[in-house]
């Protein structure tokens, strides 16, 4: 894998599965290459179709081949999982860019708990 800088823009989400009994979700996303170095978006209140337009930067080292997106519904003092998606960085390294909707598959991958629109650009160092 090449070394360099990965710029990730979390644009928006759509059709998030609603976990709340009253109202809609308060979604946010944790994104990471390694679980111990997570970055996160702001929480968008009361929507299943949030818009973030937030940009994050990751330094890519040897051996890093997947970026993870964990989507949560923020509740008072807690968080409920809406879904998780991931993208193989090979898709980004090959073209230098990535602009797609990433599905959040359910536990067995049979249904989908929503999608997030992700744009990534890679600059080799």
TrEMBL record:
Keywords: Calcium, Metal-binding
Pfam families named among the record's database cross-references: C2
UniProt cross-references to SUPFAM superfamilies, sorted A to Z: C2 domain (Calcium/lipid-binding domain, CaLB)
GO cellular component: membrane
Gene Ontology MF terms in the entry: calcium ion binding
Gene3D superfamilies given in the database record: C2 domain (2.60.40.150)
Keyword Metal-binding: yes
C2 domain residues: 1-102
Record bears the keyword Mitochondrion: no
Top-level taxon in the UniProt lineage: Eukaryota
UniProt xrefs under PANTHER family: C2 DOMAIN-CONTAINING PROTEIN (PTHR45911), MULTIPLE C2 AND TRANSMEMBRANE DOMAIN-CONTAINING PROTEIN (PTHR45911:SF4)
Record-given protein name: C2 domain-containing protein
Organism: Rotaria socialis
């Amino acid at each position: 894998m090449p070394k360099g800088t990965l710029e990730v823009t979390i644009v928006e989400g759509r059709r998030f599965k609603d976990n709340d009994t009253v109202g809609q979700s308060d979604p946010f996303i944790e994104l990471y290459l390694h679980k111990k170095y997570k970055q996160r978006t702001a929480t968008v209140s009361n929507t299943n179709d949030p818009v973030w337009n937030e940009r994050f930067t990751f330094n890519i080292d040897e051996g890093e081949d997947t970026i993870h997106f964990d989507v949560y519904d923020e509740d008072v003092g807690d968080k409920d999982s809406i879904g998780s998606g991931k993208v193989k960085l090979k898709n980004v390294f090959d073209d230098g860019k990535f602009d797609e909707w990433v599905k959040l598959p359910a536990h067995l991958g049979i249904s989908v708990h929503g999608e997030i629109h992700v744009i990534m650009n890679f600059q080799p160092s």
